[in-house]
Amino acid sequence: MRVALIGVGQAGGKVTEALVEYDYNNEFDAVRSALAVNTAQADLQSLRIDTMLVGEERVKGHGVGADNELGAEIMETDANVVLEALQARVTAEVDALFVVAGLGGGTGSGGAPVLVRELKRVYDVPVYALGILPGRGEGSIYQVNAGRSLKTLIREADATLLVDNDAWHESGESVVEAFDEINKAIAQRVGLFLAAGENVEGVAESVVDSSEVINTLREGGIAALGYSSAVAAADASENVNTVMSATREALYTGTSLPDATEADAALLVIAGRPDAIPRKGVERARSWLEEELGSMQIRGGDFPLESDRIAAVVLLAGVEGSGRVQEFFDRAKEAKEQAENRRQQQDPEEAFQSEELDDLF
Fold first, then answer.
1. In 3-state terms, what secondary structure has residue 61?
2. Is residue 31 within 8 Å of 50, Cβ to Cβ?
C-alpha cells in the first residue's frame, strides 16, 4: 500500500520518522512521502525527515504544552499552509494518507483531527489516522486529551488505527526506553502491513494489495493491528502449525490494542519466503479467524519476503466495541471528572458542566 505520512506533534513526528526508516531500510517503497508538523521547533530539529513549523505567530515555536484546544485552533489557522506543502508530496500513485499523532499531548491530539478533516476535503483517497493512546500511568490531562481527540478522529477519519502505549513495552523500562521500543514496534508492524503487495522479491500466490486494506477498513471506526512471527522450517508442509500459532499469537498477545479480539472485519497477511508458506496453513488460519471473530469478512493473502521467519499480520477493523476501548474511555471520563471536582473546589462558577467527554469541534 503506497502512502503519504503526515506526523503531527512530537510523538507523531518520531513515529513517522521510524516508519520512513523501516520502509527505507527494507527497500519496501511503501512510504512515498513524509512530513512532520509541529508547533515546537525543538521537536522538529532532531528529525531526519521533512518538517514544518506551524503556529509561530501564536506560540513562537515553543509548542502548546498539553493544550489540545490551542493545538486545534493553530491547525485550523495554518491548515492551508500545510496543504500547500503536501501538494507535491501527495502524488497520483498514493493509495492513502496517514495522519500520525500521539493523542495525549497538545499539538498532536488537537491538530490531527483538524488536519484529517481538511485532507478529506481535498483528496479522494482514504485518509486514515494512526493514533497512539497514552499509557495508564501517564497524567490525567493526557487521558482527557486522548479521549476528546479519539472521539473526534473516529468521526472525521476514514478509519483510526489505534496503538495503546501499554501494549508494546516492558515493565521497568525508563520512559525514554519505553517510547523508543514502542516506536520501533509500531514501525515494524505498521511498516510490514503497509508494504504488503508492494514491489518486493518473490511472487505471492494470493496477492494482498491496497484494495484489500481499503475494503477491510471501509466501515471506518477504530482498527487494531496484531503481529507475531516464528522461525520457519525449510519445507512448507512443516510450517502449517507455525502459521496457525503465529496467527493466534498475533490476535491474542500481539495486538496494538490489547484484548481487542472482536472485530467487524479482518485482513490476515502471512509474510515469509514463498516456498516456506503453506497454503493449507494460510487457509486454516483464515478459517480460524472467521470462527474466532464471528465475521465472514476475513480477507487474506501472502507477502513474499526473504526471511528465515514466518510472520502473521492481522488487521482488525471495527474494534470500537472491545473492552479495551471502553476501558480507555472510562479512564478518560474519570480523569475529566477528577479535574472538574478539583476545579469546582477552587472556583465553582467556572466548573465544567458536561458529564461526558466533548469532542474537539
1. coil
2. no
Report the amino acid identity of residue 1.
M
Beta strands of the chain (E only): which ranges?
A: 3-8, 31-38, 51-53, 96-102, 127-133, 159-164, 222-231, 265-272, 298-304, 309-317
User: What's the rounded Cα separation, in Å, for the pair 124 and 330?
Assistant: 35
Give residue 168's pLDDT: 73
Write down the residue that cell numbers 512448507 correspond to: 236
Question: Could you tell me which residues come within 8 angstroms of residue 342 by beta carbon, excluding any fewer than 6 positions away?
Answer: none
Contact between 160 and 316 under an 8 Å Cβ cutoff? The reply is no
pLDDT in tens, 328-354: 888 888 888 877 766 666 554 443 344
SS3 of residue 66 by DSSP: coil
pTM value > 0.85: yes
Domains belonging to the chain, first-starting first, are: 3-195 (3.40.50.1440), 210-317 (3.30.1330.20)
